[in-house]
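Sequence in, structure out.
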Amino acid sequence: MSTQQTPRQESVQGPRPTRTLVLGTAAALALALVPVSAGATESDAPSSADLEVLGSSEGTGEDTADMVAEVNEVSRHPSGGFVSVVYSISNNGTDGVHMGTTLDSDGDYSSSALAGVTLADQGGATRYHPLMNAETECICTVTHGNSAENRIDPNETYTYWALYKVPDEVESVDVEIPEFGEITDVAMG
């Protein structure tokens, strides 16, 4: 075993907690699974025109009534456990909608992120929330408050992503997007 360390390793003081290593692995997998980086904005996400539609749902809330959500990808990392979800939301209405407040989570995430999108196994026995890093930031699309980049104007579509930890025996999930109907039985790719 070599005793030589990279500069990044030298800057770490003391032993790393296990949680940091696991979450560091999750962040690395997020980069490998989804063609955007952690902390990226929705403008960095893949174009919805290039993506397959695995399921869709119309908006159910007052703000989302003229919107459609589409699940574009649910893919498991080859090493197992980690699942990335790519989804798009289109605004077919006449008013812009700030998705940061619509898709945000009431959970323990520290950043303005679209962390409210959850996965559920068949039958809804277990719900999976997006992973977070050691700083409690969601490993998903991050927005910046009520800025223009999280607002979907009429006739626009934005694509978002999130990373989850889902057991290998789960073969399909229901995708739950706040203020949209549930998109059921989406197979893992």
